Amino acid sequence: MEKIDMSRFPVENIRNFSIIAHVDHGKSTLADRLLELTGTIDKTKNNKQVLDKLQVERERGITVKAQTASLFYNWEGKQYLLNLIDTPGHVDFSYEVSRSLSACQGVLLVVDANEGIQAQTVANFFLAFEAQLSVIPVINKIDLKNADPERVEKQIEKVFDISSDECIKISAKLGTNVESVLQAVIKRIPSPKAHQKNPLRALVFDSTFDQYRGVIANVALFDGAVSKGDKIVSAHTQKTYEVNEVGVLNPNEQPTHKLYAGQVGYLIAGMKDVSEAQIGDTLYLHKQPVEPMPGFKSAKPMVFAGMYPVDQSEYNNLKSAVEKLTLNDSSVTVHRDNSLALGAGWRLGFLGLLHMEVFNQRLEQEYNASVILTTPTVPYKAVLSSTKLIKEYREKEIIIINPAQFPDKSKVVEYLEPVVLGTIITPDEYIGKIMMLCQARRAVQKNMMFIDQNRVMLKYLFPLNEIVVDFYDSLKSLSSGYASFDYEDAGYQTAELVKMDILLNGNIVEELVTVVHKDKAHTVGKAICERLKDSLPRQLFEIAIQAAVGSKIIARETVKAYRKNVLAKCYGGDITRKMKLLKRQAEGKKKLRKNFSMTSNQYVSSKVQIGETKEGTTKTMVISAV
């Protein structure tokens, strides 16, 4: 393959930009048209989600992993290098968005001409605004029957204070007016502030793992140049590497002789582990140290779940699969865990429920792994009361990611629960229902604003555990699918929390232990008991399902026993014969109940619920409580 000469692109002819938008507003379709217009890919009907390379992305129609492509575009007699970074739109992957924006000087903010501004549009705009990037509003899908670009222009003017004259109206699907987007990128986005003559300073903004070549680091060069054979140093680890290959993504990897200041590309330097290519790290030439770039805030897990192999003999295979997948997804945190019922496994931290589902789906598709997932929980905090405990934990405030390890009230001063600032955008006819839903979830209203004649933006402070499982589904159901929701971390608040145990025939099932707010304990306990009653098949003996807070039973359901008539074969005869049969049956039931008590955890783990996705039944067993 002929190597591209990147020296023909001076800094003033380079533009680094990103496409940001709400889910399904047409980011990836616009990226496809831009790739076609610049000749990066051929024009064919098969060009759908070209930058969405993962199977899960194509199946779900969402972007999960940010992707980069270098476009070469001739305009007014000059050749420009446009580096496009396609970003995810779902709230769970906003970490990917913020990383991508660090390598850019401007963004295309895509808004659907039919749906208008949605919650994630607002969140993504403020990510770009805080990063002080130039914003070009693009109104997409003007070809739709119900499209109303003028209404959307007014929304953009009111919410973002951007003049309607700056909006570009396009149809990415048909390619209408897309050329003007490229011209606006050149005219309205500044070239990077980079200096060719300074020593190398490169920011690592993403990384992937190749089993043959090791880590492939995506880098943005702010100063200097880098080529094959250079010795580079990581500012984070202070390790030295020799560069084996540099190049640009076009959209596939294309090696070049050299990368220069202002350019975005990839670099392979014999790193064996993605942890060596730390996101936000600065790379510089050996013996030419520079001031490191300000890094990113590391991704903070919002949801934790236990993951175990269905069969313990598969533990090593699953361990290898989890390690490989976390190499490509550094935002997943992994802690070793052990369960009496399920054996050895892990406690994994995710950015949200969709992130957890996608990770799980990738495990199945890419590594053919069968796993058991426990109920997702959020990270609580406890402020310890005794100096003895503080010495034991080595800190006064501890984080609890496993409900089974929730400390007793007598040992703590107070409990803290994570809260998020949620943004809901909805048609005004659904305001009443949505406000009632938010109140039921212990949310506190912070703001309310009409963004046009019939659309409202609501801001609420939510406890994270109230929205983590089914809030989004309830919101969509109440609003006939029209409301959108987004949230951002807002710290912790004090809360009256209790640990709720689930017992089967008097034995605690560790995997179903959950932490709930004191006021909701009875409701949640009753719901779990009813769910278990419907899920557990009947036995030859009675199964008592109980929810308990401390020593107090707050809810109970009973799975009735099958009745087996042992006297059916007796036609008269001595009463002692009948008594003997009934006594033997009672002893048999007692033995069965004892055996069930010993194995009830495994029993529930395998029987509670098999998770289903839109594609059908998965191989994943979800131990679900709510």
From TrEMBL:
It is a peripheral membrane protein. It catalyses: GTP + H2O = GDP + phosphate + H(+). One of its GO terms (biological process) is positive regulation of translation. GTP binds at residues 21-28, 86-90, 140-143. InterPro entries: EF-4, EFG_III/V, EFG_V-like, EFTu-like_2, G_TR_CS, LepA_C_sf, LepA_CTD, LepA_IV. One of its GO terms (cellular component) is mitochondrial matrix. Pfam families: EFG_C, GTP_EFTU, GTP_EFTU_D2, LepA_C. Residues 12-193 form the Tr-type G domain. It is found in: Mitochondrion inner membrane. GO terms for molecular function: GTP binding; GTPase activity; mitochondrial ribosome binding. Keywords: GTP-binding, Hydrolase, Membrane, Mitochondrion, Mitochondrion inner membrane, Nucleotide-binding, Protein biosynthesis. Belongs to the TRAFAC class translation factor GTPase superfamily. Classic translation factor GTPase family. LepA subfamily. Belongs to the GTP-binding elongation factor family. LepA subfamily. Promotes mitochondrial protein synthesis. May act as a fidelity factor of the translation reaction, by catalyzing a one-codon backward translocation of tRNAs on improperly translocated ribosomes. Binds to mitochondrial ribosomes in a GTP-dependent manner. This is Translation factor GUF1. It comes from Camelus dromedarius. The lineage of its organism: Eukaryota, Metazoa, Chordata, Craniata, Vertebrata.
